[in-house]
Design brief:
Blueprint (H helix, E strand, L loop, with lengths): L1 H5 L3 E5 L1 H7 L15 H6 L4 E7 L6 H16 L7 E3 L3 H9 L3 E8 L9 H8 L1 E5 L23 H12 L3 E3 L5 H10 L5 E2 L16 H9 L3 E4 L3 H4 L1 H24 L4 H14 L7 H15 L4 E3 L19 H10 L4 H23 L1
Parallel strand pairs: 1-2, 2-4, 3-4, 4-5, 5-6, 7-8, 8-9
Helix pairs in contact: 2-4, 11-12, 13-14
């Protein structure tokens, strides 16, 4: 725990705003129905985390931006000087940590709203530091990993949007995008790219995970792959069970998803009831550590991070159930033989390096 506390620990992807839209909460107090609150963040030695402004794929660009602003307003109400504190630069983040606040970085999850003129500038003004190019669905300028392709990766407009992000210090995030879109983004982005919550396809064959060659491509460009802890993305047995569940109940799940933007609380209740009736097998922290170690072997410890997806998933790993469990992850990485300098990079310093590169490019 002493070593863990001496590390800067950053979680590259959480869905705190999404959960606040589903149901109100005071995150300064314990919230046992969620994965993230301030007491557990401090208990887990978490110094910084990303709050993703998730835009459902069924919303068009303008409606999606209104939705993102709604999420931002809800989540911003949880910020305070001595609790969760918004930061927009590496210096601000380190200062917040020194003052024992938990730093919050904004991201936009699903770049479809960037089609609206002025939205990219508005994102920069809000403090958004990276944009996940799409989500589960292919849209007008980027193919998704879990939908039929339309552009062979990025459209010409998508290429221009990726370049425009760099001019504003906004990092492209290639989690959720198709393999070809990942490849193109790495090629055309002036900045290192991140995969904010993706694990290794070689260990768990799900399209949301990255194949080995793309992990290496991201690393060669100076980027960071942040391993995700969702059980269906790290354990093959859970993955197969999740895919069978989707095959059997996909239409119902899709219908609930369509209702999310209008009735988020009811949609969350309905999906939770459906998933509880069809539970997945259990998986433990060790499967997640397998992915972290594999990514390090592929890309080097300078290009790996953690993006848990806490508050964005219904099932969690045994031993890594919420942000209070981060010390268990550090202990597991030490037990697997990773050196302390490398673990420091993985837990947070790689994340800060990419944000710092984006700041310098924008300046």
């Amino acid at each position: 725990m002493a070593f863990h506390d001496d590390c800067l620990v950053a979680d590259g992807h959480t869905d705190v705003p999404f959960r606040l839209l589903e149901g109100a909460a005071d995150l300064s107090r314990p919230c046992p129905d969620r994965h993230v609150d301030l007491p557990r963040a401090r208990q887990g030695g978490l110094d910084a985390l990303v709050w993703a402004l998730y835009v459902p794929g069924g919303l068009d660009a303008e409606a999606g931006w209104r939705h993102a602003r709604r999420l931002h307003e809800l989540a911003a109400a949880q910020l305070s000087a001595d609790g969760f504190r918004q930061v927009s630069s590496v210096d601000e983040l380190r200062r917040a940590v020194a003052q024992r606040a938990v730093a919050v970085v904004w991201a936009l999850e699903n770049g479809r709203p960037l089609l609206v003129p002025g939205v990219l500038d508005a994102c920069a003004e809000l403090g958004v530091r990276y944009v996940t190019l799409t989500h589960m669905k292919t849209h007008e300028w980027c193919d998704a990993s879990t939908d039929a392709p339309r552009h062979g990766g990025l459209s010409p407009q998508g290429v221009e949007l990726v370049r425009a992000m760099a001019r504003r210090g906004i990092v492209p995030d290639v989690s959720h995008v198709s393999d070809e879109a990942v490849r193109q983004t790495v090629e055309v982005s002036p900045l290192p790219v991140v995969a904010s919550h993706s694990s290794a396809r070689a260990l768990c064959d799900h399209p949301r995970n990255l194949p080995d060659e793309l992990v290496r491509e991201i690393a060669r460009g100076g980027g960071v792959v942040m391993a995700v802890s969702y059980p269906a993305f790290v354990d093959p047995e859970v993955c197969r069970a999740q895919q069978a569940r989707v095959a059997e109940h996909g239409e119902t799940i899709a219908a609930i998803d369509e209702a999310y933007a209008e009735e988020p609380g009811l949609a969350a209740r309905d999906i939770a009831q459906l998933l509880a009736a069809h539970p997945l097998p259990k998986a433990g922290l060790e499967r997640f550590v397998d992915h972290v170690v594999h990514l390090v072997e592929l890309a080097g410890e300078e290009h790996v991070g953690i993006g848990s997806d806490f508050d964005g998933m219904t099932e969690v790993l045994e031993g890594f159930e919420d942000v209070a469990r981060y010390p268990a992850l550090t202990a597991a990485l030490l037990e697997r033989g990773l050196d302390r300098a490398g673990i420091r990079l993985i837990l947070g310093e790689n994340f800060l390096r990419v944000l710092g590169a984006a700041e310098k490019a924008a300046a």
